[in-house]
Amino acid sequence: MRNGYKEAGQHLTYRGASFEALRLEDHFSIELFKKLMNTLPIKNSGPPFFTQA
Questions:
Q1: Where are the beta strands (DSSP E) in the chain?
Q2: Does 1 map to a domain?
C-alpha cells in the first residue's frame, strides 16, 4: 500500500462485513489485536477472526 500500511493477513467479521487488519510494523500479533478488540465497549461484539487463505 502506498500509505505505509501493510496487510496483516488477518481479518474479522463485524455485522456482516469483513475487515482486514493492517499494520505499520513487520510483526503483527493476532493475540494482542484480539485483546485490543475485546476492550471496545460494544455489547456482544466478540467478532470472529479468520486468516484468509
A1: 6-14, 17-23, 49-51
A2: no
Q: What is the pLDDT of residues 1-38, one digit of tens each?
A: 678 899 888 888 777 788 888 899 998 888 888 888 77
**Quick check: is 40 in a domain?**
yes
Residue 50 pairs with which residues in a beta bridge?
A: 11
The C-alpha atoms of residue 35 and residue 32 are separated, in whole angstroms, by 5
Answer yes or no: pTM beyond 0.90: no
Which of helix, strand or coil describes residue 20? strand
In total, how many domains does the chain have? 1
Question: Using CA of residue 33, residue 39, residue 43, residue 44, what is the dihedral sign?
Answer: positive
For 31, the domain range is 6-51
Whether the CB-CB separation of 26 and 51 falls below 8 Å is answered with: no
